[in-house]
Design brief:
Bound molecules: zinc ion
Oligomer: single chain
Shape: elongated
Helix content: 10-25%
Number of helices: 7
Strand order of the largest sheet: 1-6-7-5
């Protein structure tokens, strides 16, 4: 699944290609994505200039002159900027045609992606309105986490992955950040001290920042906006390393189930 670093890498790639370009056409081959795509976009979008491309959580916000397109990559989606005469691939669902002979194509085998058009403030759209702060933003720090965790009995790992607490901290990044902070994933969120939340917030920023610098890391077949693959180069401490020695202390990494997710941790380093 594209995680926040892949979405941010996509944003940077398509922003370069889209900003300042005028939309020439919108072609919808399959409107049945996670939610039906509005066929009227074929009339609404042409003629509008792309002012900028932003990101909120794992949503891409394409700011046009008269509104904003909110795109989500779902479980398996990717956006590519390609020459306009590029043959359509299987699972290509929509295309935003641009001036200068290029277009933006959306490919998504599992069709959990989405595309919405809003004319008001996109951050007030129901998909975005209830979301917690950005993990790389200033509002996300140890004091914030400690405040939200007060009295909470939920385990710290699902707490950290709750989009109302903070957005975009997927399973890999939650596991790795908890290791860096020395926090056991099953510890109750309300029983983690302020100093350890400072380390956890710093750990989240560090693992996401590293992944973004490496161009997105989590999907082995991930392709960025210009068509070049991203590679899993990040040094992982615990994720999918069960049975292997901890890189810090040598104790075998353990795996446990939390909800529907596998969690990896070092029983010696994380308390
Ligand atoms: Zn260890």
């Amino acid at each position: 699944m594209p995680e926040l670093p892949e979405v941010e890498t996509t944003r940077r790639g398509i922003r370069t290609a889209l900003r300042g370009r005028r939309i020439s056409a919108f072609v919808l081959r399959n409107h049945k994505l996670r939610w039906p795509v509005d066929r009227a976009l074929a009339k609404i979008l042409p003629g509008q200039c792309v002012l900028d491309v932003h990101r909120r959580a794992k949503y891409l916000l394409m700011e046009l002159e008269r509104g904003t397109l909110i795109a989500h990559l779902g479980m398996s989606g990717s956006l590519r900027v390609v020459p306009a005469d590029t043959p359509w691939l299987k699972h290509d669902h929509y295309e935003i045609g641009l001036d200068r002979g290029r277009c933006l194509r959306f490919n998504d085998p599992r069709r959990f992606g989405s595309l919405h058009w809003v004319t008001g403030d996109p951050l007030e759209h129901p998909l975005l309105a209830g979301l917690g702060p950005e993990p790389l933003g200033r509002a996300f720090d140890g004091a914030y986490l400690a405040g939200r965790a007060q009295g909470r009995k939920v385990a710290v790992k699902p707490f950290l992955m709750d989009q109302r607490i903070v957005v975009g901290v997927g399973n890999i990044y939650a596991s790795e950040a908890l290791f860096r902070a020395g926090i056991h994933p099953r510890r109750a969120a309300g029983k983690v001290g302020r100093q350890r939340y400072e380390r956890l917030a710093a750990g989240v920023k560090a693992v996401l920042g590293e992944a973004i610098r490496q161009g997105g890391t989590t999907l082995r077949d991930y392709v960025s906006a210009d068509g070049t693959p991203g590679y899993f180069r990040q040094q992982l401490y615990v994720y999918e390393r069960d049975g292997q020695p901890c890189r810090r202390c040598g104790t075998p990494i353990r795996k446990l189930a939390q909800g529907q997710r596998s969690t990896y941790f070092c029983p010696a380093c994380q308390k």
